[in-house]
Specification:
Blueprint (H helix, E strand, L loop, with lengths): L5 E10 L2 E11 L4 E5 L6 H8 L7 E6 L5 E4 L11 H6 L9 H9 L13 H13 L5 E5 L7 H13 L3 E5 L3 H7 L2 E6 L2 E5 L6 H32 L6 H19 L20 E12 L2 E12 L3 E5 L6 H9 L6 E6 L5 E4 L12 H6 L5 E4 L2 E4 H7 L16 H13 L5 E5 L7 H13 L3 E5 L3 H7 L2 E7 L2 E6 L2 H9 L40 H28 L4 H4 L1 H36 L2
Parallel strand pairs: 3-7, 3-8, 5-6, 6-7, 12-18, 12-19, 14-17, 17-18
Antiparallel strand pairs: 1-2, 1-4, 8-9, 10-11, 10-13, 15-16, 19-20
Helix pairs in contact: 7-8, 16-18
Length: 610
């Protein structure tokens, strides 16, 4: 076996008052593919900084094979002081490196090299930093969240590029698909120490669960032994003789071991605050268009989002995903067409840049608004310390400024703020950035059980496959096409033929939905049966149902206002009962009206496309 190019041995480091690394190890041999995993705040990024020579340690040994070149990609690259992105990339080249490779990599990543670093987006800064570390073709490549802010084409290119490199690669990432493709070994940081498994990431969860189960058994055995020794101490022979003094010292040692034994850290508890149930129709768009100048962002989009849907929005950076979210939620007005929002919607959003967080505010004030020490979740007050614990924040972090939190901790904090607000329409713009794998798993479980509707923008292929029920894909020139299923399902449907000709009809057992509806003529494989004609009664119902639904919504709002009075039942039971019955009747009638309106709209569109 070849000697390691990089070896970290018994690394000890304390940041603040708590030890972060307590004997961590890392060994990297030529050509190795290694992923570093662990919870946010466990020390993954710090360990990579130590390996790159950027972080001094309290103790331990750092060895780099003489003559080996190491390149490090930070989570937040700093491009200040450079006139262009090409200058920034070329500054990372060493003697003898090919200067043309810098421009080549920038072009592969969709950049010219003439961009001003002062005005780059997060994705452009990440692409520039990737070109800088890849250009020298180093012996060791240390990558900290390389896919953050990258779109799917760039991630696919990066995966292929890294797979073809001869360099040893150490990577931290939340992108499961990337880790499964590239990794051959795993280093797991847990409670300040490292464990290693020489298998790919696909084996990590099974291995982790086995380790944690064994630790729990060991902790249980130690507890039983302490109980036996304490029983001897209370009821056994007096501890004056030397042998008993030795046994007493052993008991003190066992107690110390139990005190120092740190099992698995507590789990994240993600629970979304409840809200009123929305109407069956959440969003309806009719021939919506939106352009910026001469550039079309959305062209003739017709789609429906029904209650309980989880819609993923996918496309390259700049395709207009955030603009489309704004149109679907009513935050932006279309140039033409119509966007109809359903009844009783309560929107909760999570922005990708964490712009809603004040860097100067403390963690506790961010959660409470700075007015008290209580957080109201599902109409119940909870102490901020208890709520912080659900998201893996310790009491000592309550007065920590948000600006000093890690990227993953800021991501968890944004989730904590968003999920405390009641809502039935959850809008997530790149929610997976900087989150650790365990928090991602729990976020997936939350979304699976979420009773409302989800609109999700993400470049995480595995996350999309696990969460969404359909995918809206940017096909270019402002055209968006919807596919049933997750990201992998979308790829299969597109591969089956021309993407533009694939109908977006879901299986018969699911809710009907259209998006950029294709023609149903026989030449395109559609049904040859003639469309059902609309009667005068159907046309009249289509014209009058919107007003009926609006009237029902107003009646429901009045009933809900009455029922919001907690003293109504004791003051006037008959009025309370009447309001309850009215609300139940209106909800039933509104659902039936929405179903009928949707049926008639589909019939009308089918006739227009004949």
């Amino acid at each position: 076996m070849a000697p390691p190019l990089l070896h970290l041995q018994d690394i000890r480091l304390t940041l603040g008052t708590a030890p972060l690394l307590t004997g961590a190890e890392l060994s990297v041999s030529p050509g190795e593919r290694l992923c570093v995993v662990g919870r946010n705040g466990s020390g993954k990024s710090t360990l990579l900084k130590v390996a790159a020579g950027l972080q001094p340690v309290d103790g331990g040994r750092v060895f780099v094979q003489p003559g080996s070149t190491v390149r490090y990609l930070p989570q937040e690259p700093d491009l200040t002081g450079f006139k262009t992105t090409l200058d920034y990339v070329e500054a990372g080249l060493g003697p003898g490196d090919d200067p043309y490779r810098a421009r080549y990599l920038l072009e592969c990543l969709g950049m010219t090299g003439e961009e001003d670093p002062a005005v780059l987006s997060g994705g452009e800064a990440r692409r520039s930093a990737l070109a800088r570390v890849l250009a020298p073709q180093p012996d060791i490549l240390l990558l900290d969240e390389p896919t953050n802010h990258l779109d799917l084409p760039a991630i696919a290119w990066l995966e292929q590029e890294l797979g073809a490199m001869r360099a040893a690669i150490v990577i931290i990432s939340h992108d499961r698909r990337l880790l499964e493709s590239l990794s051959r070994s795993i280093v797991w940081i847990d409670n300040g120490t490292t464990r290693r498994l020489d298998k790919g990431f696909a084996h990590f969860e099974t291995w982790r669960d086995e380790v944690l189960e064994q630790e729990e058994r060991d902790k249980h055995k130690l507890g039983r032994k302490i109980v036996m020794e304490e029983d001897w101490l209370r009821y056994g022979v007096t501890a004056r003789r030397k042998r008993n003094q030795k046994r007493l010292a052993g008991l003190h040692t066992l107690r110390k071991q139990r005190k120092e034994l740190r099992g698995a850290a507590g789990g994240v508890k993600l629970v979304a605050a409840d809200a009123e149930i929305s109407g069956r129709l959440v969003v309806v768009t009719e021939h919506v268009t939106k352009s910026y100048g001469e550039r079309p962002i959305v062209a003739e989009l017709t789609t429906r989002v029904l209650r309980g849907d989880r819609v993923g929005i996918v496309g390259p950076n700049g395709a207009g995903k955030t603009t489309l979210l704004g149109l679907l939620t009513g935050a932006l007005q279309p140039d033409s067409g119509e966007v109809k929002l359903g009844s009783l919607l309560q929107l909760v959003s999570l922005d990708q840049r964490r712009d809603s967080l004040d860097a100067r505010a403390t963690l506790a004030d961010t959660l409470t608004g700075g007015t008290s020490d209580q957080v109201v979740v599902n109409n119940q007050s909870r102490h901020v310390m208890s709520y912080m614990k659900d998201f893996l924040f310790g009491p000592e972090q309550a007065r920590t400024p948000v600006g000093v939190l890690s990227g993953g901790e800021r991501g968890r904090l944004t989730l904590a703020v968003a999920l405390a607000r009641p809502g039935n329409l959850l809008v997530l713009d790149e929610p997976t950035n900087d989150l650790d794998l365990e928090t991602l798993e729990l976020l997936q479980e939350l979304l699976a059980d979420y009773p409302g509707t989800v609109l999700l923008v993400s470049h995480d292929r595995d996350f999309l496959d696990r969460v969404v029920t359909s995918v809206l894909v940017a096909e270019g020139d402002g055209k968006w096409v919807e596919y049933a299923g997750g990201y992998s399902d979308m790829l299969l449907q597109r591969a089956a033929g021309n993407a533009e000709a694939i109908p977006v009809a879901p299986p018969a057992s699911t809710k009907p939905r259209t998006a950029s509806l294709p023609s149903t003529g026989a030449g395109q494989g559609g049904s040859t049966q003639p469309a059902k004609k609309m009667t005068f009664k159907d046309k009249h119902a289509l014209a009058t149902l919107p007003d009926q639904m609006a009237g029902l919504q107003e009646e429901m709002a009045r009933a809900q206002t009455l029922l919001s009075d907690p003293a109504l039942y004791t003051r006037d039971p008959a009025k309370f009962r009447k309001a309850t019955e009215t609300l139940a009747r209106c909800e039933k009638e509104l659902a039936a009206a929405e179903e009928r309106w949707l049926e008639l709209e589909l019939m009308r569109e089918e006739m227009e496309t004949r």
